[in-house]
Amino acid sequence: MRLALTGRHVDVTPALRQLVTRRLAKLERLLNDHALSTQVVLDVEKRNFKTEITVHARGDNFITGKGSGTTWTQSVSAAAEKVMQ
After folding, report:
1. Global pTM value
2. Of 10, 22, 27, 28, which shows the fewest CB atoms inside 10 Å?
């Protein structure tokens, strides 16, 4: 699965990239070979961290989840949980 990671108003550090990759590993196992690519957009507004995950699956299916929180861990976890539902 290809991963496109975009940061708006934030630098994407290797630690942040690793956090996103670990959270998406479970999703990749659930979808097996059906997930083609994933786009993750990270955004910061004041002290609110926002994450938007869009998964492109086979058959032109798109799964989207948005999450926010006071830390990157909360934000990415919330978005990943919404995608897995």
Report:
1. 0.90
2. 22
